[in-house]
């Protein structure tokens, strides 16, 4: 028995080899730097500091809403449940590397013969056998690393799922911020429409008074009515849009949002979003959650190749059981009743009609697929960051131009109204000025939204505050070392 136990312990400590191909992180199929051509992109390249969402979204109300969404959103809860599933699957797979020690006890009663059966009366009746055993019924010696490769694949799948949760969390923060800004924008547009309705109503009353006084034609009245009708139609549409925006925000949050936390206007919140430092090397993309998820999926596929290769080699199992057996429960544990058994077994695949070779080819195909998806993910991430940086490089100038346009349109309307009252210009000039100002004010609001959204997009494309949550393991880390640090 002592020899059997020692053999089990020795087998558990054997440094198994592995059939996995050596993993080296593929070189990203993207340029080493961002496209040149704007002041933002000409900054000194350095590593990006970790930035939390509270450092970017400085509006306290928005911070409360984001925190509420992170606690209540059902999609995020589902993603977290998938992490728990992946963690459990990894632990189950890793447990196969080690012996499973079981303790069992039982009692068996059997008939040993009766009258007329040819058995003597002294031996007739029933007999009960008692047993108590401890041991491993079938421990596989992982000499070729198949189980370790499967364990490494399960671990990398777990890390990929965990990175997926961070991607979901980052997307949720971005979606909540975007929905918040959309609501703020539509409230600003609603205020502009309401203000235009008031101004157009006043202009219509003045025009009607001039018509009644015989100094203005009826066409002036009808033209003034068109401005009022358009503004009123926009106002009613925006009232519904504001309600829909709130519904969309509360769907993301997963709970009602307090009226006190709702934005008043885009003007009140766009300055509360800070810029993320943009001077960085493009290799920062390797720390994005979606890129990490794709890399861990690639590593898992690489480990699966090792498991498929190891399946071509013999499988060696060890059985060792020790215990006691007796026909009397009171004397079960006497030294004379001790029993033990131990024995290895081996199986070598001879013919399987190409099943193992098919598994290996499929594993290699999955690796190539994961490699293509990994490179595609990096390329998509590069484009998103480059697009966000390009937008940031021009949005401030565009916003300044929109501010000048709005100021000029407002001044033009003031002058046109004065010239119309003095009979210098026709009402058509005032009508054009009213419409120009209305459009300019709406465009300025849209520019504010675009400026704020560009900051949200840049924060999201760079990985946000998810950058520090996962650190990719080195390419040379072995399966055993990976398992040692696993949960």
UniProtKB/TrEMBL annotation:
Question: Which keywords does this Swiss-Prot/TrEMBL entry list?
Answer: Coiled coil, Lipoprotein, Membrane, Palmitate, Signal, Transmembrane, Transmembrane beta strand
Protein localization = Cell membrane
- Family according to the record: Belongs to the outer membrane factor (OMF) (TC 1.B.17) family.
Q: Which residues form the signal peptide?
A: 1-24
Q: Coiled-coil annotation: which residues?
A: 221-248
- Pfam families xrefs: OEP
List the NCBIfam families.
outer_NodT (TIGR01845)
Q: What is this protein called?
A: Efflux transporter outer membrane subunit
What membrane topology is given? Lipid-anchor
Q: What is its main location?
A: membrane
